[in-house]
Amino acid sequence: MTPGLVARDATEADAEQLLAWRNDPRTRSASRTSDVIALDDHVRWLRGVLASPDRLLLVVEAAGEAVGTVRFDREPAGEWEVSITLAPASRGRGLARAVLTEGERVLAERQDVRAILAAVHQDNAASAALFERAGYRESAPAADGFRWLRKTQP
Question: InterPro entries, per this entry (predicted)?
């Protein structure tokens, strides 16, 4: 466990908060899909994620306050793609690395993980630096405005 942070499984009760974070303009600008998402569409998506054995969605909390979310999507051959979102109010507090580390810890406890992949928008220098500091390395040429980084698990 990362000191001070606890990851828990997301639930349907988190839908509105997760949607507010997802629809935040800064979050949308770094996402593959930058459209504003409607609540009904989001709830449908969330139910599918929560029911899927190939996805893990965590809410990370500090002192009982939700500060971010980490999602992992299973890829072939024991690889997982990561997506991280910090709550807008949590940005600038130095929490991103700890949120990512806590998510990776939970994933490794629950799944056989060979590697974790991250798609990082080419204009998102902060996210690229986060993943690079966490041990992710360039794994494929950039495509469609996104860099691909990969972290091999021990």
Answer: Acyl_CoA_acyltransferase, Bact_Acetyltransf, GNAT_dom
